[in-house]
Design brief:
Strand 9 and strand 10 form a beta hairpin. Helix 1 (23-34) packs parallel to helix 10. The mean pLDDT is 97. The protein is α+β, with helices and mostly antiparallel strands and 460 residues long. The strands form six sheets. Strands 1, 2, 3, 4, 5, 6 and 19 form a seven-stranded mixed sheet that branches. The protein folds into two domains: 10-196 and 329-363 and 377-454, FAD/NAD(P)-binding domain (3-Layer(bba) Sandwich), CATH 3.50.50.60; 205-319, no CATH class. The protein is built from eleven helices and 19 strands.
Length: 460
């Protein structure tokens, strides 16, 4: 074993340090800065948005109640959507009902999605961060943390020009994988530990030059041919997948195609590749996933060109810059979001966000399967503040998909609108804690909820 030591210069100091500029981190940074805190945002890419931009994950899944009647996730998410719409880079969710091309022709759990352009989101993120006064460190990654007695003293960052340290009154871990919290010694569960599984990864990709009218016509011919059997959904284009498999042109363990029309009529986002057993916290495992994902994309795109009406002249526009990871660590918090809470539409008194996203566990019963449980019509549930507060730490918050939740419950709130909502709440709480010099455990949840309401967050 090699022992390596080096003196690091403390180059950054702020009230709030946000690690990760994905959907949750972007909202956490803007929310904290609007709350009067000095904020530094650390992001490993040269742009914000995370899975929405680097991962090409689209559309934003529903932000409405399960009946599609009330927009539940508002606040910064709503502002981002409105800004994108003004630029012509999104279609408002109120205009995207289900089933439709925007929802991959799925009805349950997919009412009111939001198609958007990733390039537009990059620009909107830059503008909002600049307006709020956030200091951005692009091309900078979290490396390590120095902590004692439940207090994070310094965060080690890796920049292009070397290692350095940053200090802050409050750190918000929006890395998706809970990297900072885990490095500091926070307790966590990895995936579904009881079943020894994590949800599979996916390489998203975009295709263009599609005659979408022909896809619509093909869908209408098969509108009554959607069904579920033995935990497997037979949905969009499964009739063509079956023909391709019979002809030897398809060997993937998938039976349907997830395809979502974008803002431009001839462009579609494809969510079909499935890479099992990837550890999103391990570089070698991620490397295997990236290579396998691109291999699967090649096969899927060839299928589109050969079998899917309207795609004969389709072009592969782009694959995700990074693999789409659905699940890694669930940091153990002061409270835990439980699956029964979601399905019974529980609304705790300290809720900082309201959602209706379905329990969606890919690969639950094998690579072809999933578990999908939607809420009753008009239902919703609350995410309590305690799920953002790691046990045993006085100046650390988490937001996004690494929040404290059972694995199946996390399968509902891991999608981007809930991640933005928890990010905004964490940012507001961080600003309050830094302003009053108090532990994150002592943040008054009634005051926090009041502040969130003042910012347009829907909390009934």
């Amino acid at each position: 074993m090699t022992v390596y030591s080096k003196e690091l210069k403390e180059e950054y100091r702020s009230d709030v340090l946000v690690l990760g500029g994905g959907p949750s981190g972007l909202c956490a940074a803007v929310a904290a800065a609007r709350g009067g805190a000095s904020v530094i945002l650390v992001e490993k890419y040269g742009f914000c948005g995370g899975m929405a931009t680097a991962g090409l994950v689209a559309p934003f899944m529903t932000c409405f109640d399960s009946g599609g009647g009330t927009m539940l996730i508002r606040g910064l998410f709503s502002e981002i959507v409105d800004r994108l719409c003004l630029r012509g880079d999104a279609i408002h969710p109120s205009l995207c009902d289900a089933p439709s091309a925007f929802t991959s022709y799925i009805t349950v759990g997919h009412k009111r999605v939001t198609p958007f352009r990733a390039e537009g989101l990059k620009k909107v993120a830059d503008e909002m961060l600049a307006e709020a006064g956030v200091r951005i460190l692009y091309h900078t990654s979290f490396a390590d943390v120095l902590s004692s007695d439940g207090h994070i003293e310094k965060v080690v960052l890796l920049r292009k020009n070397g290692l350095c340290c940053a200090t802050a009154k409050v750190i918000v871990d929006c890395t998706g994988d809970g990297d900072c919290a885990a490095s500091a010694g926070a307790a966590f569960e990895f995936g579904n530990e009881a079943e020894k599984k994590v949800q599979p990864a996916t390489t998203f990709f975009r295709i263009g030059n599609v005659d979408s009218s022909k896809i619509e016509e093909d869908y209408r011919k098969n509108i009554d041919n959607f069904y579920r059997k033995d935990g497997v959904n037979y949905r969009s284009l499964h009739w063509w997948v079956e023909k391709a498999r019979e002809a030897g042109d398809w060997d993937l363990d998938r039976v349907s195609i997830g395809l979502f029309r974008g803002v431009d009529e001839d462009e579609w986002s494809i969510n079909t590749s499935r890479i099992m057993g990837i550890d999103g916290t391990d570089s070698e495992s991620l490397t295997r996933g990236e290579i396998e994902g691109r291999r699967q994309v090649e096969e899927i795109f060839a299928f589109f060109r050969k079998y899917v009406p309207g795609c004969e002249n389709a072009k592969l526009l782009q694959t995700g810059t990074t693999l789409g990871i659905r699940e890694t660590r669930h940091i153990r918090g002061a409270k835990m979001l439980k699956t029964t809470d979601l399905l019974s539409c529980t609304y705790p008194s300290d809720s900082i966000a309201v959602c209706a996203n379905s329990v969606d566990v890919h690969g639950k019963y094998g690579p072809r399967s999933n578990e999908y449980i939607a809420l009753p019509e008009g239902g919703f549930y609350g995410i309590p503040f305690g799920t953002l507060v790691p046990e045993g730490f006085d100046n650390l918050l988490v937001a996004g998909r690494c929040l404290s939740a059972e694995s199946d419950a996390a399968g509902a709130v891991r999608v981007m609108p809930p991640c933005m909502a928890t990010g905004e709440a964490a940012g507001c709480a961080a600003a309050i804690a830094s302003a009053y010099g108090i532990s994150v455990y002592r943040v008054d949840t009634d005051a926090l909820r009041g502040e969130l309401r003042n910012r347009g967050v829907y909390l009934p």
